[in-house]
Amino acid sequence: KHHIILDVDTGKDDALALMLAVRHPDLEVRAVTCVEGNTSLEQVVANTLRVLDLVGAPSDLPVAAGARTPLVEPPRDASMFHGANGLGDLTLPEPTRTVSELHAVELLRRELLAAEEPLTLVTLAPLTNVALLLRMHPEVRDRIGRIVMMGGSASRGNATAVAEFNVWHDPEAAHVVLTSGVPVTLYGLDVFDRVVADDDVIARLRASDDAVARTAGELLAHEFVDPRTGERKPYRKIGDAGAVVALVAPELFAFETWPVQVDLAPGLGRGQTLVDRRDAAGEDLVHGLRGPWPLVDVALDVDPRAVLELFL
Ligand code: BDR
Ligand code: CA
């Protein structure tokens, strides 16, 4: 069993990831921490509590609220894709569970220190909470076995031409995490964008006699309005849930280990993850500017059908 902590900005696809993580027999979720990202921190917490109720997570599973703003820049939400409430405007019942009185950083610290073995952090959101944890409590670093991070891209971006939303929202935080020495698996847009539910998958979910599956179907069916054309468009990606799949079924992906850095400079490239896929990487002048680049396992290819089946 993998013992994990999820860091989320729920978010339609964070909701799908929570559902899968709570229900997957090979995973034990020890805590969930929330960060501002797709929507406001308050809304992220409310959405997370509601989704955990729906999926029947243990009532004592701790959920904590964390950072409200990125380390340097003001927050910028993604309501365009996720709807005004972050959950595709789906209304779930008021939560029965409550948020912890602890800050997310403190909950992370306590869970990591209390665990009998190092935990895996699955980060599905901007990395502000995890960066603050690593800076405030560097002693917990060795208690993190691995970080599976939805973030970045070795090709195009989504928030900008080159930057993926979670890294773009808090590039400094992503930099802190990538250079921390904790092993990182990057689940970026190269695979994230390819796991797309088709009509059949959505119909199967919507017709299910399981309320969680039906909600997953509604989340996947939610359409967003393209700001360029005003058209309603399907999104349909299982998104962050794919990062959970990458943890339980890595054989469905192809990973390669490459040096990775985040572009922190102001300008058009800010927030881009530079994945240096050159053969002789690591020996040139550019690398010399910041010392050796951290080596990261980057998911570059995926069997989308198999991932969808596992998700279903
Ligand atoms: C990431 O950004 C958010 O909008 C999604 O929840 C996902 O974590 C994709 O770039
Ligand atoms: Ca997310």
Describe this structure in words.
The protein has 13 helices and 11 strands. The chain is globular, with a radius of gyration of 18 Å. The mean pLDDT is 95. The protein has a 9-stranded mixed β-sheet with strand order 3-2-1-4-5-6-11-9-10, with helices on both faces. The chain has a two-stranded antiparallel sheet with strand order 7-8. The chain has 312 residues and is an alpha/beta fold. It is 35% helix and 20% strand. The structure holds beta-D-ribofuranose (BDR) and calcium ion. The site of calcium ion (CA) has 8 residues, from helix 1. The site of beta-D-ribofuranose has 15 residues, from helix 1 and helix 6.
